[in-house]
């Protein structure tokens, strides 16, 4: 019996639209794993493009979207989610027939909706995706090739999708060390609201609350590890997270309302000096964190 080993993933040309932390890290990872011949970076920020070229993240850089995508096999949009519809509409006339377009956005319902509204339909070779990876830093200068290793990437197929496009994109993410899973649009936005969007909202709100107290200087001076760990993500890009929360507001509001009910329960227990209720909530939380969450 002849056993054929699968060939390593490789494409000639990948375009990164928006060369920041995520886009830059993907470019580095593809290069590190010999999965791409040429990386093209498109951005409206000339400084970011110059950094990408100087750092060796991109082989070619341009502020011309048509030029950036015209010969590419895969185009990855790593831009604010609010501009993706316009970008897809602008790039479509310039794509190769078999080119695949994807994104790395943290919401999926809004991205699919804006692309459909902009184009009039959902292109069959547009494959929504979301790598569950990142740091609180941003900019191509903070990108690194190992960002996606042993991290999950969610592929969100839609009813119009070309099967080979989904398969190719899955192999691309696997080639950079990611663990790929498929998920539905609605479920994705609900899960990410709970696990990513609400934590960011709470971190920003906590720091803002403390920053408006009269003794804020002393509070921040004595803040220790717990404060640092809980609020680290509040140093993320505020504009990006404002858009994410607004674009996924229905799912965020659903989780936020459940959270506020729990806070109200704790507030009532504190007011009544109800140690049993507080201990029960804290104990359930510790059990859940210890047993259900495992560091990737």
UniProtKB/TrEMBL annotation:
The keyword Glycosyltransferase does not apply. Belongs to the prephenate/arogenate dehydrogenase family. One of its GO terms (molecular function) is prephenate dehydrogenase (NAD+) activity. Residues 12-296 form the Prephenate/arogenate dehydrogenase domain. Keywords: Amino-acid biosynthesis, Aromatic amino acid biosynthesis, NAD, Oxidoreductase, Tyrosine biosynthesis. It is an enzyme of class 1 (oxidoreductase). It comes from Wohlfahrtiimonas chitiniclastica SH04. The lineage of its organism: Bacteria, Pseudomonadati, Pseudomonadota, Gammaproteobacteria, Cardiobacteriales. Its EC number is 1.3.1.12. This is prephenate dehydrogenase. Pathway: Amino-acid biosynthesis; L-tyrosine biosynthesis; (4-hydroxyphenyl)pyruvate from prephenate (NAD(+) route): step 1/1.
